Amino acid sequence: MASPLLTVSNLEAWYGESHVLHGVSFKVDAGEVVTLVGRNGAGKSTTLKSIMGMVAKRSGSVKFRDRELIGLASNVIARTGIAICPEERGIFASLSVEENLELPPVVQAGGLTRERIFELFPNLRERLRSQGAKLSGGEQQMLAIGRILRTGARLLLLDEPTEGLAPVIIQQIGCTIRALKEQGFTIVLVEQNFHFAATVADRYYVMEHGCVVEGFGQTELDANRDKLHEYLGV
Q1: How large is the angle between the packed helices 137-149 and 167-182, nearest 10 degrees?
Q2: Which domains does the chain have, with CATH numbers?
Q3: pLDDT tens, residue order, the chain (234 aa)
């Protein structure tokens, strides 16, 4: 069997003196959508930032395509083919949609063209000359995702992509995630909205107090609903 695309083993992370992650371990196979779920403060976003090298102090192992990432700077990690769409979106307010799209460097072949991005997010074509500050929350999220699709990264880390968005935009984000999976992208999704996550995910890892406490596949979802209710209140 092929090795997992991403293997996280005994990952520990700290913010200053605060110990946030306590031995997080999980695997992601190529071409699947894996969702990290859990209550606020469980360590989900910190896990994504730690994979990306955005946490100053971390230990354990993060392997992408069998290459160890612990000890590498975040810009080096990005050039291996991983991209993150942060919860705060990171849109440059004074730059236009077009300028925001063109800003990240292409790290490897295989990124989506602007035309393909506009097919996924038609709103961006219509707002191409608009400043980032003038976009709605949904349009900013579309731009944040579209921007990393240009880079050629094949592993996408999406942090709370539906937070605060209208139902029609959430539905569009879901369609986009499914379309990206069909094109061979691999996605690790952090999502508070479990009902949304259940429409796109192949597997789930439940986090609590900085640890992964449960893991199961989509076919096991019904059998684990009682546990999910206990952990998440869903």
Answers
A1: 10
A2: 6-232 (3.40.50.300)
A3: 678 999 999 999 999 999 999 999 999 999 999 999 998 899 999 999 999 999 989 999 999 999 999 999 999 999 999 999 998 888 999 999 999 999 988 998 889 999 999 999 999 999 999 999 999 999 999 999 999 999 999 999 999 999 989 999 999 999 999 999 999 999 999 998 888 999 999 999 999 999 999 999 999 988 888 888 888 875
- Kindly list the distances between the CA atom of residue 126 and the CA atoms of 41, 123, 151, 160, in Å, as whole numbers in the listed order: 37, 5, 22, 25
pTM for the whole thing? 0.94
| CA-based torsion, 183, 179, 182, 91: positive or negative | positive
Q: Which residues pair with 12 in a beta bridge?
A: 22, 59
Contact 204/14 with Cβ under 8 angstroms?
no
Distance from C-alpha of 189 to C-alpha of 79, rounded to nearest angstrom? 20
Report the run of H or E that residue 230 belongs to, with start and end: helix 225-232
Sign for the CA dihedral angle at 146, 157, 106, 136 comes to positive
Residue type, 101: L
| Residues 58/70, Cβ–Cβ less than 8 Å | yes
